[in-house]
Amino acid sequence: MATTSSDDIQQVRTRNILLPVLLSVSISAYLIYANLDTSSLKLIHFTSKLAIGLLLAAVALVIRDTAFMYKVRLSAGDKLSWGAAIRAIVMWEFGAAITPKLGELAFTFFVLKRSGLSYGRSTGVVILNTFLDNVVFVVVFGIMYLVMGHHIIEVSSDCADLSGGHVVQKVMLQVRHLAQNAWIGYVFFCVAGLFFGISIFVLPTRAKKFFYRLADMKGLNRFHDSIKHLGDEIDITAREYKNQTWSFWLRMLVATLINWTARYCIVNALVFAFSDVAPNFWDVYARQYLLWIFLVIPTTPGASGWAEIAFVALNCEFMPVGLSAAIVLVWRIYTYYFYLLAGIIVLPGWLKRTAKNVRVQTGN
User: pTM of the prediction?
Assistant: First the structure.
């Protein structure tokens, strides 16, 4: 696993924040320019329905983060106080907002280690939570597919807000077209989950040897150290959690399910808040699983720009014509700008508070 130094963390406020924010704001502004129908704005009134929808989105956000904190604290062996867990989650989400998908795990590992966890426990928390996120996604998506059928990945090309002919709108139409092949992404999640499940819980030693041999193969010299690190980390994770009880695993799975259910329900709440005619909310909820397959594609820091495009592309039929750009901006406030702002506020105090852990780990 790649490492992140404290000097790198010190510089995130000036170097790492500006790019994703500019990308996100630029795409949002462009979407408003391309899609916003000023006549549709007249339909928005501060009614009890709008207030309830926005409040429900906030409640879903709180539930999501509470479940997230609980499972991170549980997987850390209660070595984090609730206060430390809250700060760690803020920094975890802050890292996700300012780093590309491929760099997110390294940032998260640094946050947990600086929060006072050992190398082994930090590694275990990151890998275990990532694995369980994958398991819950695969299982719930599979259940919904069995119940709702192929309908959940059928996305038509008809959507009024994408008919303007602008470049971004054309990209969105391509995203809707690609959604028909989302089962490929789902199969990838299944295979990855099965592979890492066997590696962690059944054959960790063999998995470590496999990655060591893989690292020595010709053509993979560039990734030699990273591949070997992955093998080491799987073995460490297996040793960290091999003696856990069924109660532990049940609580972790339930917390993970609540975490992701609440995350997706934020969109349901926003659709309820702004739509004059309520759609089938099961369809809205299921569509967020489809959206997630696109959001895990490594792109820009915090998926800035890409998140806005994919959200509108895959949810536009659930939103009033002309308001999709406004709704995606509200969605990003709940799921992105909130954590970005919280991270900026928490970062200076967190660095000072956790400095003692760095001294202990380095023996100074």
Answer: 0.86
